């Protein structure tokens, strides 16, 4: 008799927990669908009243992560096909630089300078292509603003390369370092322009 009574209370508790969760599910709550799954599994080992306490930390976590997920959900739609296309092109330029590795590995300064110059030329060509696409995409005022920023960036690029090369001042590595830094900074600018400006 006592077992039957406990079994009846247990079944009623499960039914009540299920009803409250199905009401939340009908309201479209993301937490409730998880709560239904969690209360179904642990119900055999814990009383039905323990389920709401177990759900509280998760509900808080879901509420905390939901706002963060919303901007992320908005970002993929912000990435255009053109943006993806140019990121893929830049990745291909990066992968294509492997053909210069033997020149770097030779240890001959002239060969290493040739490789660094070729690397810089490839990134500069990509930068110019991106800039021309942006001329077509951006409004006149946006383009004027970008042009000013780009002129500032050119100054930054040259100063950064000069500063880095001065570490080897007077040596054969000075021009190599200058060109290598030009290439590296130009590469970073290519990705930056695509991610920040390209539509």
Describe this structure in a few short sentences:
The chain has 199 residues and is mainly α. It is built from eight helices and no strands.
Keywords:
199 residues; mainly alpha; Substrate Binding Domain Of Dnak, Chain:A, Domain 2; 8 helices
Q: Can you tell me the overall shape?
A: flat
Helix content estimate: over 70%
CATH fold label of the largest domain: Substrate Binding Domain Of Dnak, Chain:A, Domain 2
Number of strands: 0
With helices defined by DSSP (H or I, 4 residues minimum), what is the helix count?
8
- Write down the secondary-structure element order: HHHHHHHH
Distance between the termini: 73 Å
Low-confidence stretches: 14-77
Overall radius of gyration: 30 Å
Estimated structural class:
mainly alpha
> Assembly type of the shown chains?
single chain
Description:
It is a single chain. The chain has 199 residues and is mainly α. The protein has 2 domains: 2-76, no CATH class; 79-197, Substrate Binding Domain Of Dnak, Chain:A, Domain 2 (Up-down Bundle), CATH 1.20.1270. Helices cover 83% and strands 0% of the residues. Helix 4 (81-96) packs antiparallel against helix 6, helix 6 runs parallel beside helix 8 (173-197) and helix 7 runs antiparallel to helix 8 (173-197). The longest helix has 29 residues, at 50-78. Residues 14-77 have low confidence and may be disordered.
């Amino acid at each position: 008799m006592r077992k039957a009574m406990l079994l009846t209370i247990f079944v009623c508790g499960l039914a009540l927990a299920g009803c409250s969760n199905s009401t939340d599910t009908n309201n479209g709550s993301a937490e409730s669908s998880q709560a239904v799954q969690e209360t179904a599994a642990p119900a055999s080992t814990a009383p039905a009243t323990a389920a709401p306490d177990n759900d509280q930390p998760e509900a808080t976590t879901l509420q905390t992560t939901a706002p963060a997920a919303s901007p992320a959900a908005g970002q993929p739609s912000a990435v255009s096909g053109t943006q993806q296309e140019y990121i893929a092109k830049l990745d291909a330029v990066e992968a294509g630089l492997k053909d210069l590795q033997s020149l770097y590995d030779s240890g001959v300064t002239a060969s290493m300078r040739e490789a660094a110059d070729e690397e810089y030329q490839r990134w500069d060509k990509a930068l110019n292509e991106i800039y021309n696409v942006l001329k077509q995409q951006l409004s006149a005022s946006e383009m004027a603003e970008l042009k000013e920023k780009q002129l500032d960036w050119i100054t930054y690029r040259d100063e950064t390369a000069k500063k880095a090369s001065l570490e080897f001042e007077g040596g054969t590595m000075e021009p190599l370092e200058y060109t290598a830094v030009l290439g590296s900074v130009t590469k970073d600018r290519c990705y930056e322009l695509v991610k920040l400006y390209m539509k």
